[in-house]
Amino acid sequence: MVAKLAGGSDRRANNPDPGFKAALPPKQVQLKNAQGVPIRKFAQLDPAMKSTIRTFLGTAVAREHLDKSWGTIAPSMRRGYTAKKWATADALPVVPYLNLDINKVQYYLDYASTKEILLEVGLSVREDIKGEARTRPTAFQLGLSPVGKGPQKRWLVSYWMPRWTPPLPIN
Prior knowledge:
Blueprint: H1 47-61, H2 75-78, H3 83-88, E1 106-112, E2 117-123, E3 138-147, E4 154-162
Antiparallel strand pairs: 1-2, 2-3, 3-4
């Protein structure tokens, strides 16, 4: 027995569109270095990838020398910007972390596939004259995606978000 408890105004059918074919996402293949060894730690990433990450953090995230960050950003994050507009923008699609101490960044590789690399990045600020940090250390997630093919292929930053969950209120 089927009962209808409340009528709504939506009269569309629940069937999929004609021609729809359900499909699983493409299989992820673990990323390997030039020697064919699976990449499981940040230290195993290619030096060019590490350079891209460090440049992105020290420019776009720290909001310093924004013009130098343009080459580290994937097209999906650049959408709506030109290099000139990016370098002078007040608002970017990158969560800032000002006064970043680039030499104290901590990295943890979540996973590395041929389609995406995801890292957890721990940031802290430079200490002020009194030896105090004015911003609490914060963890972020950073994603890299491949752009281009063959020898032109580069890994660029395609995702950047704080890994922070607001505390739940009591009652």
